[in-house]
């Protein structure tokens, strides 16, 4: 039976569904999830919010696996959800299992501020649920300090400084989250090395199995799906491990294939480009020059002299 989806258009509606008093601010709220008492007549375990959600789950029942291995930071697990993503963690378990909090803010809060554009750079809002953030005690303290400042601002009489200060502390919270994710990539370095190897193997197989001839150029999205990661998380992982983003890594691999063909075949540059899956020669020429600093014909002539 298909599961019904409940859309939650506002933070006020969320408060109502969780059985708590109306929010002090219409566009942002920090909720103590231990005080939530979901109203079963309005409750559905699968929801889609029209706003951003950040939720901390902690305690014995939050022990879980991170990808393929158990995580080692048990101060809590944080999930980051962007607007219109479905919430897969059953909210009806909050009352009996969760000892945590939730931060919810509507995109309208950010309009007119630099954060309105900058928030797109916080890739963790696009990560899969098993790519969540596992925090230390110190990281938790930093995040909760920013949350307390947000609460303090919206709980007092609002003035023309309020929105700016709320957004400033929200950005601080997001930056602390980014730092914690960066630490997580570093502490999992030995595991991540295997992911880079798997990524390279998938890339090699893509061309050896000639998938590029039917599917075109390999994409980060495609390779991420083969490795059971989100494209955003895989991109950040590759950047931390290799110094290159996933797309840059793919392009470099393609250019290396092209170099080999330029030096070891008599095919024209056009034949090489189309043989690698490019639909347009100009796209190949642009990628090659960007990666090598010279055109394909210059590379061939310089190395065959």
TrEMBL record:
Residues 201-302 form the HTH araC/xylS-type domain. The keyword Transcription applies. GO terms for molecular function: DNA-binding transcription factor activity; sequence-specific DNA binding. Keywords: DNA-binding, Transcription, Transcription regulation. Pfam families: HTH_18 (PF12833). InterPro entries: Homeodomain-like_sf, HTH_AraC, Tscrpt_reg_AraC-type_HTH. Coiled coil: none annotated. The keyword Acetylation does not apply. It comes from the Bacteria. This is AraC-like DNA-binding protein.
């Amino acid at each position: 039976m298909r599961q019904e989806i409940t859309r939650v258009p506002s933070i006020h509606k969320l408060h109502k569904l969780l059985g708590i008093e109306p929010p002090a601010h219409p566009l942002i709220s920090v909720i103590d999830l231990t005080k939530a008492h979901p109203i079963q007549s309005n409750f559905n375990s699968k929801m889609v919010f029209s706003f951003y959600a950040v939720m901390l789950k902690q305690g014995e029942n939050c022990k879980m696996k991170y990808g393929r291995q158990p995580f080692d930071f048990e101060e809590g697990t944080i999930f980051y959800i962007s607007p219109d993503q479905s919430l897969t963690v059953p909210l009806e378990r909050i009352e009996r299992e969760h000892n945590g909090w939730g931060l919810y803010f509507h995109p309208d809060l950010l309009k007119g501020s630099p954060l309105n554009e900058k928030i797109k750079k916080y890739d963790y809002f696009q990560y899969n649920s098993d790519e969540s953030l596992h925090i230390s005690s110190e990281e938790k303290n930093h995040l909760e300090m920013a949350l307390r400042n947000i609460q303090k601002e919206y709980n007092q009489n609002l003035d023309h400084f309020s929105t700016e200060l709320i957004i400033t502390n929200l950005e601080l919270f997001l930056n602390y989250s980014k730092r914690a994710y960066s630490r997580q990539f570093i502490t999992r370095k030995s595991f991540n090395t295997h992911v880079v190897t798997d990524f390279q193997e998938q890339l090699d197989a893509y061309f050896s199995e000639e998938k590029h001839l039917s599917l075109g150029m390999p994409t980060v999205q495609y390779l991420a799906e083969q490795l059971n990661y989100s494209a955003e998380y895989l991109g950040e992982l590759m950047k931390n491990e290799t110094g290159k983003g996933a797309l840059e890594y793919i392009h470099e691999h393609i250019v290396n294939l092209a170099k080999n063909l330029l030096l070891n075949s008599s095919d024209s540059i056009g034949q090489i480009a189309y043989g690698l899956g490019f639909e347009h020669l100009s796209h190949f020429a642009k990628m090659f020059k960007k990666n090598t600093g010279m055109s394909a014909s210059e590379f061939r002539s310089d190395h065959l002299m």
